[in-house]
Amino acid sequence: MFDQSDGYGLLTKIIHLSTSSLPIKDKLDQMLQAIQDSFGADQTLLLRREKIVENGLLSRLALEKKPFWFDEESSFPEERVHPAEKDLLRLPFACLPLYERDIFQGMLYIGFSKERKFSSQEIDLLLLITEEMGEAIQLSHLFQKVEQTSSELAALQEMGKVATSTLKLEELLESVVKTGLKILQAKGGVLRIEDKTTKELKVQWSFGDYHHHLLDEKIAKRVLMTQTPFLLNHFQKDSPLLSILCVPLRTKEGVLGTLAFYDKDSDPSKFDERDFQLLLIMANQMSFAIENALTHYETSQLATEHEKRVRELTILWELSKALLTTVKFERITQMTLTAITIGAGLGFNRALLFMVNEKTRFLEGTMAVGPDNPEEAGRIWRYVSQQKGNLSDLVGQLHLPPEKNSTLNTIVKGIQIPLELEDCILSKTVLEGRPFNVRFPQTEETWIQTKCDRGCHLSVEVGCHIGTHLSRDPKVYSFATVPLWGKGKVIGVILVDNLYNQNPITDEDIQTLTMFSTQAGLAIENAILYRNLEEVHQTLKETQTHLLHQEKMAALGKLSSTIAHEIRNPLVSIGGFARRLYRSIPEQAPEKRYTQTIMIEVSRLEKILSDLLNYTRDEIPAFQEVDLREILEDSLSMVSEKFDDGKIQLTKHFAEGLPKVRGDHQQLLQVFSSLFNNAYEAMKGKGELSIRVLAISKNGSSLVRVEVENTGSGIDPENLHNIFNPFYSTKDSGLGLGLPLIYRIVTSHQGQIEVDNRPGEGVTFIVTLPSAQEGDKK
Amino acid sequence: MKKILVVDDEESIRLLYKEELEEDGFSVEVAKDGEEALEKVSLFKPDLITLDIKMPGMDGIETLKRIRDLNRKLPIIMCSAYGEYRQDLTTWASDAYIVKCADLSELKTTICRLLGLS
Q1: A282 and A248 share a domain?
Q2: N or C: which end of chain A has fewer CB within 10 A?
Q3: Is A564 an 8 Å CB contact of chain B?
Q4: HSE-up of A295 (CA within 13 Å, CB side)?
């Protein structure tokens, strides 16, 4: 039986346990154990409300709100026992309902295997115990509620902090996922945002493990579409539990995306209702923050884009302004290429300009700007970065001295590409009139296309340069070409690359370059027109000078011919009679020498007179087919008699089968006799005269070339540029009209005269005349 | 003996030519202008004529035309102070054209050539 002290002990123990800090489950377990031990019971249970069978005995008893004990069959209402209760409810037993604030919580059941009588004292004790247990449960409920509310508050506070801490989208998304992971104790989390234009649901941020599973995507899409949260605790055979918690990120305008968490870090790994509620609160709060951040992100993207455009336009404007400062072709092209390569401009490493020659249908390398090697590149970049002032001034004033004679510039100036060369990227750019961005031509085929493989220096010298000088694989050489548009036609090509810093050439780069080259193209075309205008102007000026000269000569000629007779006839008489006197005077007489002096002086005057008359008489050549060989022989015999004293060695080399020349016999005779005469005079009686004649072909025309070489003293370089000018003579005798006349005759024959002067050694005059068949062609 | 008619308005030239050519064994007659030349051609019947171009009155070219009307085969050497009509005259009328020079060797060579003398 049970005495009073035992009852006290039990009650003390129960109260003790009730106020202890043990978790509620342990509290109740230990209480039940203490009851079982004190009463010597076989089974002590706390039946929770939900475990009690409806319409059974226990539920009926619970309504009575008082303890019951059944120790004899007579008082036991067996008919009320529900079949499900039959096993439990065997006599004797006691049961006491537990109430917390008038809400039924459960039933304390104490069962015995042998006969047992309950004293009223024991019943009182049990009543006290149940009251205490009820309070303990109530306390624990309260505690749980407080704990939950405080953790929710903490989570919300944390989320709030995150939401207000940043406007940077990436940071925010990262914080959202990380905080969610912490609050929900999940193993992984994913935030998805719907792309407004493509309607595609994209993973924006993920953290930890998450299921790259088709199911996962499907769930996210469903949540987005239905705007309904989703909780799945999925049991799979032979694999860990799959638990997913996915909520929509709702805003006023609709759904932004989804936030999902995976696998609670607990055992079993499953999310409960509370997690679900927490996530919902979190998602609601974060949606607005994310929406703001998204708007901010889009706005700043747009702002950046605008800023870039404005910068580009500013650059283009500045560069165009610079181009307006000059009309000189050289300056314009130099400025264009500088603008393309300068860092503050378009910033390419190198720029090459090729212009279309409409007459020859060739692309001609015109100019290149760019360093020859990385060291020079660095030097130039440093130099340019130190320059002050706005871009247009910079482009206009910048002179990079090493570039003018750079290897690249020299190479480019030597490049000539037929426009019809199909494989060449430069020709293609002109013919198709569009830009090409050749990014890393990886395959051999594209590389060959780029390098044309037909003796084009572009790849071999400009591109392959990379292979040999920078030990880089030429196959990874990237470059771009843009056409240079004039008015309605492509007038050239600009090639750019980033050889040294290897920055990729983007499509935007090409776009900017195209915009700029449109401006530059017009400026360059204007410069070309201006240059042509200048050339025409120059020609006009020259023609005017020439006409004036001719007029002067005509006047001089008229004057000369009138006085010619007046002087010539007396000269002939004086000279003629002097000769007669000379013959009649004996050898030793002093008069012989006087007479000779008269003769020589008369000859000299006659020579001057005929030079003057010949030069001023602008005779129209009477063209006929002439044999140059014959003319040369005749001219030689006319002159050589005068000098024939055996001290001058004469070598003639006349090539076989020389074509005939179209010319005026008399005038050509004059040309060559004058040249031979000059040669003999230059050698002062001693030396070697070589005459070589050969047929040559130049630019597809057939020509005859005559070289008259002497071993005299050559022409003083000071006088060289004047030798074809009339009245410029260094000789004591003569008016200096010999070479000017030769020049005039040769040019009137569509020929050329050149001088190869070797001061101190001799001089060679080279006369080139078109053959007779060339004349027929015209 | 071959007969040569020298036509020139300059007396000194006429004298020089006459003396030089006579010394070389020719019979020389002179005329001071075109009219006189035409008369002398009929009277003297020269084998060759040297004819100055620029003369007062009838000039050498007119005289040449008139003489050719009388005699198409008579050798005529045109003598001038300069070579302005060389091309035209040698192609259609005269047999030779000489620019006057104190050295008479060219004239003499031409005379001998035209008369078939060595």
Answers
A1: yes
A2: C
A3: yes
A4: 7
Residue with tokens 């003996």: B1
Domain extent for A343: 325-535
Query: Does residue A551 belong to any structural domain of this protein?
Result: no
Cα–Cα separations (whole angstroms), residue A373 to A299, A401, A403, A461: 43, 15, 11, 13
Average pLDDT of span A732-760: 82
Residue A481's contacts (CB-CB under 8 Å, 6 or more residues apart) are A425, A426, A429, A435, A436, A438, A493, A494, A495, A496
- B35 or A449, greater pLDDT: B35
* Statement to judge: residues A723 and A644 lie in one domain: yes
Q: Is the pTM of this model over 0.95?
A: no
Q: Which runs of consecutive H residues, i.e. helices, occur in A470-506?
A: none
Q: How far apart are CA B53 and CA B68, in angstroms?
A: 15
Q: Is the separation of the CB atoms in A98 and A133 below 8 Å?
A: yes
Instruction: Say yes or no for a CB contact (<8 Å) between A576 and B16.
Output: yes
Q: Are residues A741 and A630 in the same domain?
A: yes
Can you tell me the mean pLDDT for A219-243? 78
Distance from CA of A735 to the nearest CA of B (A): 17
Per-residue pLDDT tens digits for A283-313:
888 888 888 888 888 888 899 889 888 888 8
Q: What is the ipTM of this complex?
A: 0.90
> Mean pLDDT highest for which of A201-215, A649-663, A738-752, B41-55?
B41-55
Q: Which residues of A688-723 are buried (b: 16+ CB within 10 A; e: fewer)?
A: ebbbbbeeeeeeeeebbbbbbbbbbbbbeeeeeeeb
- Kindly state whether residues A349 and A431 are assigned to the same domain: yes
Place A452 in a pLDDT band, splitting at 50, 70 and 90: very low
Most A-contacting residue of B82, B86, B91 (CB-CB within 10 A), to test interface: B82
Contacts of A613 in chain B (CB under 8 A): 82-83
Phi, psi of A720, rounded to the nearest 5 degrees: -55, -40
CB environment A609-622: b (16+ within 10 A), e (fewer): bbbbbbbbbebebe
Same domain, A485 and A364: yes
Answer yes or no: do A628 and A773 share one domain: yes
Alpha-carbon distance A344 to A391, whole Å?
7
Q: Say how far apart CA A307 and CA A312 lie, in whole Å.
A: 9
Q: Does residue A764 lie within any of the structural domains? A: yes
Same domain, A88 and A209: no
Map out the domains of chain B as residue ranges.
Answer: 3-115
Distance (Å, whole) CA A768 – CA A747: 10
Tell whether A373 and A474 lie within a shared domain: yes
Residue A407 lies in a domain: yes
Q: Which range among A42-51, A374-383, A424-433, A711-720 shows the weakest confidence by mean pLDDT?
A: A374-383
Q: For residue A152, what are the CA distances in angstroms to A141, A147, A661? A: 16, 9, 113
Q: If you count DSSP H runs as helices and E runs as strands, how many of each does chain A have, helices first?
A: 23, 22
- Any A CB within 8 A of B14 CB: no
Fold of B3-115: Rossmann fold (3.40.50)
> H or E segment at A235?
strand A230-236
Whether A334 is covered by a domain: the verdict is yes
Q: What pLDDT is stored for residue A471 in this prediction?
A: 44
Pick from B86, B87, B102: CB nearest A572:
B102
What CATH number did the domain enclosing A339 receive?
Answer: 3.30.450.40
- Domain boundary at A517, A535, A553, which? A535
Number of domains comprising chain A: 4
Instruction: List chain B residues with CB under 8 Å of A580.
Output: 16, 19-20
Report the percent of chain A where pLDDT is more than 90.
8
Inter-chain CB proximity B102 and A580 less than 8 Å? no
- Which residues of A fall within a CB distance of 8 Å from B54? 565
